[in-house]
Amino acid sequence: PMLIGLAITLAALPHPPAAFGQADDAGTAPDPLPALELSLERARALALANDEQIRQMTEAVVAAKADAMGARADKLPQLDVAGVYTDNLKKPSFFLPPDMAPAFGGNKVEMGGDFDLQGAATLTWNLWTAGRLSAAAGAADEVVASTVWQKALVQDAVVYGVEEAYYDVLLAEA
How confident is the model over 35-72, as pLDDT tens digits? Predict the structure, then answer.
């Protein structure tokens, strides 16, 4: 807001020709710069479109909405899939105690194969959480509403700053 007021004030001041290189070597100056006309509505529109705080609050609203979406996502089923492929140089094996060896044809028992592929899929679905997930989603929605109000507050502050600077310039010219 202060920068906008400074910009409006500086734009209203007369510009010395030497500061902008307007005097040529012969000492003649070209036509002066045209006066900048800026209506209050245009000043408001420029400030609302270009203010960094408003941009940050817009991103904060987007982030709050993403958090709310994440809070509601915990109610959905989740599918986890995993897989392992093993190329064995030697087959995995284990050894049995001597008293069990005759039943399995020896002490050494090989398992698996030269190539081994294992897979697993797990489905998790929270059927009942005693209201914990609903409360988290409700709290996240309240954060979104609060962030939207904070953005409106920042917009109002920016508009107020522009109007204050605009009227200060008008009073200075009077």
Answer: 678 899 999 999 999 999 999 999 999 999 999 999 99
Give the Cα separation of 146 and 84 in Å (integer).
Answer: 47
For 165, counting Cβ atoms within 10 Å of its Cβ (0-12 exposed, 13-18 middle, 19+ buried), the class is buried
Check if the beta carbon of residue 54 is closer than 8 Å to that of residue 154.
Answer: yes
Roughly how many angstroms between the first and final C-alpha of the chain, as a whole number? 23
Is residue 6 within 8 Å of residue 12, measured between CB atoms? Answer: no
Q: What average pLDDT is seen over the chain?
A: 83
Q: How far is CA 163 from the centre of its chain?
A: 31
Asked if residue 144 lies in contact with residue 63, where contact means CB atoms within 8 angstroms, the answer is: no
Cβ atoms of 19 and 32 within 8 Å: the answer is: no
What is the Cα 26 distance to its own chain's centre?
56
What are the distances in angstroms from CA 105 to CA 96, 99, 101, 109? 10, 11, 6, 8
Distant-in-sequence, close-in-space partners of 69: CB < 8 Å, separation ≥ 6: none
